[in-house]
Structures are given as C-alpha cells and as structure tokens.
Amino acid sequence: MSETKALESMIGEEYKYGFTTDVEYEDFPKGINEDVVRLISEKKNEPEWMTEFRLKAYRAWSEMEEPSWFNATYEKPKFDTLQYYSAPKNKPKLNSLDEVDPNIRETYEKLGIPLDEQKMLAGVAVDAVFDSVSIFTTFKEKLAEAGVIFCSISEAVQDHPELVKKYMGSVVPARDNFYAALNSAVFSDGSFCYVPKDTICPMELSTYFRINNMNSGQFERTLIIAEENSHVSYLEGCTAPMYDEHQLHAAVVELIALDNAEIKYSTIQNWYSGDEEGRGGIYNFVTKRGACRGENSKISWTQLETGSAVTLKYPSVILQGDNSVGEFFSVAVTNKKQQADTGTKMIHIGKNTKSTIISKGISAGRSDNSYRGQVKISKKADNARNYSQCDSMLIGQTCGAHTFPYIESANPTGKIEHEATTSRVGEDQIFYLQQRGISEDDAISLIVNGFCKEVLKELPMEFAVEANKLLGIKLEGSVG
Amino acid sequence: MLELKNLHAEVEGEGIEILKGVNLKVNKGEIHAIMGPNGSGKSTLAKVIAGHPEYEVTDGDIIYDGESILELDPDERAHAGVFLAFQYPVEVPGVTNTTLLRESYNTIAASRGREELDPLEFDDYIKEKLDLVEMNPDFLERSVNTGFSGGEKKRNEIFQMAVLQPTLSLLDETDSGLDIDALRIVSDGINKLHGEDDAVVLITHYQRLLNYIVPDYVHVMLGGKIVKSGGKELALELEEKGYDWLESLAKVNGEAK
Fold this sequence. Notes:
- The complex is a heterodimer of chains A (480) and B (257).
- Chain A is of the alpha/beta class.
- Chain A contains eleven helices and 21 strands.
- Chain A is globular.
- Chain B is of the alpha/beta class and 257 residues long.
- In chain B, 39% of the residues lie in helices and 28% in strands.
- Chain B is built from nine helices and twelve strands.
- Chain B has helices at residues 42-50, 74-79, 97-111, 119-132, 150-164, 180-193, 209-212, 233-241, 244-256; strands at residues 2-11, 17-26, 31-35, 55-64, 67-68, 82-85, 92-96, 143-144, 168-172, 199-204, 217-222, 225-230.
- In chain B, the strands form three sheets. Chain B has a six-stranded mixed beta sheet, with helices on both faces. Chain B has a four-stranded antiparallel beta sheet with strand order 2-1-4-5. Chain B has a two-stranded antiparallel ribbon with strand order 7-8.
- In chain B, β9, α6 and β10 form a beta-alpha-beta unit.
- In chain B, α5 packs parallel to α6.
- The two termini of chain B are 27 Å apart.
- The chains are: A alpha/beta (480), B alpha/beta (257).
- Chain A binds chain B through residues 2-3, 427-429, 431-440, 442, 446-447, 449-454, and chain B through 12-13, 50-54, 73-75, 77-79, 83-84, 86, 89-95, 99-101, 103-104, 107-108, 111, 143, 160, 164.
C-alpha cells in the first residue's frame, strides 16, 4: 500500500460518540409557523417581550432567502418537516443532580463529562445541554459567591430579564442572516453568563452540547456579558449520534465586552461528520459574534473544528472601543466528504484597534476546507492593525483547500498583513519520522500537532489534552 | 551485521530499475565508504536499506543481524538499530528537536527493552550529546530542521545519531554542504560514536571526507552495482583517475549478468 493510501485509510477512524440515548420525548409538532413559535415560548413560560422577539424574527426569516454564497454544496434542510423543539419528558426544574434522568447522566459520563461535581475537572463549571434543553449546570453556588451568573438562557429569561432584554440581539440582530433569524425565532436553550464589574471569573465555564433526537434541530443561544474590568474564559464542546439523515444545528452566540473586559471563547466541535459517502452528519450553521464595546476590551475566539458534514461559521469581533483587541485562532480538520467554510470577520471601528487571525486548515479524504475572512477598517479607525496567517495542509490527493480573504480599508493609517501557505504531508516527512523509529500513526499525529501548535496553545489548559486526543482520533487509525 | 545479496530495486510503480544486483557485507566495528558518480544508485541504496516506500525490492535480500528485514516497516528497521542520516533532512514545523528525539529515543528504547527516560532525565541525557557536535542548546527548542542552514541540518543528523545510538549508521552525503570547520566537527563526532559494536556506511562523492574518517573498505558504485571494492587507497586512486576508468568494468559486469 502506498503511503498516501495508508494515510487516507488511517484518518477514517470511527466516530466514538455516535451512540444514541433512549429517552422519552415530549410531543411536539413538526414544521414551523407562528403557532409553533408561540408554543415554544409558551413551553418555556416566557414573558411577552420574549414571545414578541421570536415572532418578529420568525416573520423576518420567512421573507429571507437561504444563502448559497459559500464554498459548499449540500441538500437543503427541510424546514417544514423539522422538529424545532425537543425536550426529554419529566423535566421539572432540577435542584440536584439526582433528579437528572439516569440515562442522560450516563450519556454525559460516556462522553467524558461527568456532571457530578466531585468527579469533574477541578475549576470547570459545566452547563449540559441535551437536545433543546439545559439539563444541569454545575458549580452554580460557587460561581454565585463571586457574583458570576452562569445558567441556562431559559433561566436567565426568567430570573434576569433586564440583562437578557438589554443584550440579546444587540450583537447579532434577529434579522442578521437567514440562520440567525431562524434561531432567534425558535431557539430553545443555551448558556447565559454574566460577569460583574471588577470580577475575574474563578473557574472555566463550559457548555456541553449533545444532539440526541434524530428529527430535531438544535438551536441554542449563548449570551456572555463581561462588565468593566472583568475576565471570563468559556469553552463549548459538541457531539451527536450517527444517523443517516442530516441534522441541523443553527446556533447564535453573542459576546459583549465592556471597558477593560476580556472574554476568551473556545470551541471543540466534534459533531458527527457523516460517513464515507457523505450520508448523515450535522449541518453546523452558526453565527458567532463578539462586540468589544469598551475601551481596551478584548475578545478571543479559539476553535477546533473537527466534526459536522457541513460547517459554515465565522466567529467575528466588532472592535468598537478604542484600543480593543480581537483574536481568532482556528484549526479546522475535514475528512471523508466533509465541507467546511469557516473563518472570521474583524471589523475595526475604534482607534488603535488590533486584530490577529491564525487559521490552520487540514484537509484529508475527499473533503473541502475553505478559509473565508474579512478584515474591515472603517474611516474612523485610526492606526488599526491586523495580522492574518492562513495555513493549509493537505493529506492525500483528493481533498481541497481554499482561502478567500476580503480586505477593506477606509483609513490610510491602517496596517494589514496577510500571509498564507499551503503544504502537503509528504511521504518524505513521514519516512523521515519513521526512520527515527516513530510509527506512521504517530508521525502523522506529530506533523499535524506541530502544524496546529500556535492555535492549540491558545486552548485552556484543562482542555488541551482533550484537543490533542481529538486530533488523534480524527487522524489515527489502523494502517493497512 | 549487514549483508546485501544480489539486491535489485526499482521505483515503485514506475518499473525503473535503479539497483541492479548489489552485493555487500558489513561487519561489526567496520567503516565502509561507498563512492560513485551522480545517479549511480548510492542514495537509493541507503533508502532501500532503511525501507523507503518509494522503492520496491524486486529481487535479492537484505540480511540484518542474521535475518531478512525486507518485510519490516521503516520504523521497525529503526527499532532494530538502523539509522539513516539524510542527504536532505526534512523539516517538521512546530515539532521541536527535543520532542522528536524524546519520542524517538523512548520508542526505540521500549522496543529494545531499554529503559525509557522521563522529560527531565532525557533533558540531562540529550545535553551531554550536544557537545559531541558542538551544537548550541538553543537547537533543542527549535523546530526540527526548520530554518536551519544546510550545514546545521547535517550536523543535526549526526546529533540525532548520537542520541539514538544506532548499530548500523548509513550516512548519506553527510559531508556535502559543510565548510571545512563543520566537516571536522562532524567527522570527529562520527569517529567518537563509532566503536566495536556498530558499523558505519559512508556514502560520498568526495575523497576529502575520508581524510577525516578512515574507512576499512571502499566500494565503487556505477550503474546500480558495486563494480569495485578495495581498501582506503582505492579512494585516492578514484580521486586521481575519476570514475571513467571503471566504466568499462561496469559494462563487462552488466553483460556477464
């Protein structure tokens, strides 16, 4: 077998999170109309303003066209047969972990996310979202002592309506784009985090998203607010069972950083990616955006994207405050017939704003991996600076890597640098490492980890090991 | 230790035969030099012994420590003690020299039943070896061969040899691209590493390396075969006469086949 073939076979390792959990679901009608939107709002016992927010978004969405400008081809989701809300039965408000459905608890155990605080990674609080609802949030009391609010977005609507009302939709307006509008109409759950003034959040916050139900979409909504002089680090992880049908995941994430505040948002995305022939897998159509509203504020996005059949995702930063900083660190791995069109937008508005983009794309199999990024320097943004570096690595002969940078500068003092490279994992590189006694699997793992190093080091320490393991799973396997 | 028997090899899938029946015997404690003009098959020979997948052995055998290694993967051959210092060492961005060498060392140690070293022990061990090739400790934290000059890459290969302690070292044009000082340092390193229990095969164009590393045997390769073997004086003869006078010998051998 030639090295290239061996490479291609070894990256086809099986998906380890593809099991389903046997859970009884609440009945909910399929398809979407105003009644369905009202019903979701009613199920969640929402105040009038929230219902209105949803209805407005729904009306906007129903007049919008599904976009098709990205570098991916796929069968469009069937919006009229999709189920927009999916909650396990018997879910009253949970006060202790013992009340969580044992099947669901076991699911999280299997995924390596025990919800039992004793067993958890010290220093990490978890909000576990199962299909459309938040199941449990750990370490709530400990966080509350520091004044940090970390709960599901549903709870936040009930308990902190003034904050939700003020900030939700302020970064990603309901009519921002097709999928954001849909999410705004039907979002079911997600995480909410509020860090008060002068507070450094005492632990890592994380949300673990799990899609279980075959016919439902997942529309979660995350809202993070960091007040003046505060700091928070947040991580999300995602997995889903293996089904032959595609499932839709359309999330909206909004981050708001005020004066001198810093938000670090990391994603380890490992949704089911479909099989060799491209059957099944998640459509990951997500709108993520952060606003550096305050002076000297900073927002960092770090993502490790390994799953999903199709990913369309551009975590962005609007740099409004003077001296604010936006960062985007990304590793996107595609294999089999996966398609990823991902990148970022850095919109410079304030003076002396600075952004950094480091993107590493790895394509294997018959996949397609595109980086798409926009850097925009507006008229008032004196002395804005951007540095972008986009590197692509190809494994095998049948995959594709593309780079689409868009640069706009309306201010002559702006400085923009863009670097891009493309390399191929070659036989010679693997042979060199093998000659030093390292197996072919380990050689590829070493080469890929070296390639991604600048990004992986940005992940919170607690998750670095998980990230390395995930890259391993994705790129290792039996050598034929 | 190493015996090549009528070794034939071609480029995989292309049917172009490069090695056309190489016979060679290397014993423990010996240094052999293989010389020959460009395209004679010297580098291919080294790669075939190390198991490069680009080449297919179509006839003959490679016997190492009494057993055929034809079926072994390159990493398994490395575990058995075969080391190839590359003519063109490969860059591995983002992977430091230390990371690579610790992984190499421990993998080989594990397969040979030697004790593996933890990062701190390894750090001490590896620093001792730096002096051998007069390398700056900064090298350890740099990505493997990335941004190294030609000479630094070659020196790094010998440093790796020092760390991994192979029993059969194939040095493919280690002297090319080295200035005279670096050549001396590298040669001294190789001489210090070589002992009674290992063998060295030097592949080179030039006699000048052999002023520093004195071989027990010199072989001349032409047209994919070893056409003449002799003692160290053969190298001097080649330096004087060039390879032309051996061409006829290659032809005779070719027809005799």
